[in-house]
Amino acid sequence: MATVSPENTWSYTLNLPNDPRSAWIARITLRGVLSSHELNELRDDAELLTSELVTNAYRYSDGPVELRIRELPEEGVRISVWDTNPDIPEPFDRPAIRPVAPRRAAETTYGRGLLIVRRCADNWGSHSFGEGWSGPGFRGKWLWCELGAKKPAGGARRRKVTPLVGGA
């Protein structure tokens, strides 16, 4: 029987404590994952978005954080962050349409990180799990964003070719 799942897909999960160092650890992990899958051209944007999502989870929840990094078709990546606070923050509480107009005053100190995610990501979304959603005590939310591989002007993304050792 044939399967409908794509071949050779990958996914990584990292559980992080509610700690100010979690964003740094998430960025290092993401950097390693992208490098090992030859997606270095996504690294700068993906690190920024991961840092903003994990920092938001640390600031506005009091429990652990889970980071998921998953391959997308056409050599992209989805970055998802789960935390224990079920409230969907601005601007993720609105549909994923552009342009995104900030609701906050320009002089505010907090609240710009997720706006950066929405402006820089190719796609984004959220899902809340309210109190008692899947059993007692389970609650929280997922915030996610996606980045597609940057393609050179001439067409498809070039992959590094590893030469065979010892001949053809």
Give a quick summary of the entry.
With 168 residues, the protein is an alpha+beta fold. It has helices at residues 22-36, 43-60, 113-120; strands at residues 11-16, 65-72, 76-83, 123-129, 140-147. The chain is globular, with a radius of gyration of 18 Å.
Observed structural traits:
single chain; 168 residues; alpha+beta; Heat Shock Protein 90; five-stranded antiparallel β-sheet; 5 strands; 22% strand; globular; kinase
Topology (elements, then pairings):
Elements: E1 11-16, H1 22-36, H2 43-60, E2 65-72, E3 76-83, H3 113-120, E4 123-129, E5 140-147
User: In terms of per-residue confidence, which ranges show pLDDT below 50 for 5 or more consecutive residues?
Assistant: 152-168
Mean pLDDT: 79
Strand content: 15-25%
Largest sheet: 5 strands, antiparallel
CATH domain class name: Alpha Beta
User: Given the C-alpha coordinates, what overall shape results?
Assistant: globular
Structure overview:
The structure is a single chain. This protein is of the alpha+beta class and 168 residues long. The protein has a single domain (11-100, 109-147), classed as Heat Shock Protein 90. 24% of the residues lie in helices and 22% in strands. The protein is built from three helices and five strands, in the order βααββαββ. It has helices at residues 22-36, 43-60, 113-120, and strands at residues 11-16, 65-72, 76-83, 123-129, 140-147. Strands 1-2-3-5-4 form a five-stranded antiparallel β-sheet, with helices on one face. A hairpin with a 3-residue loop joins β2 (65-72) and β3 (76-83). α1 runs antiparallel to α2 and α2 (43-60) packs antiparallel against α3. It is globular. Residues 152-168 have low confidence and may be disordered. Pfam families: HATPase_c (PF02518). This is Histidine kinase/HSP90-like ATPase domain-containing protein. Residues 45-126 form the Histidine kinase/HSP90-like ATPase domain.
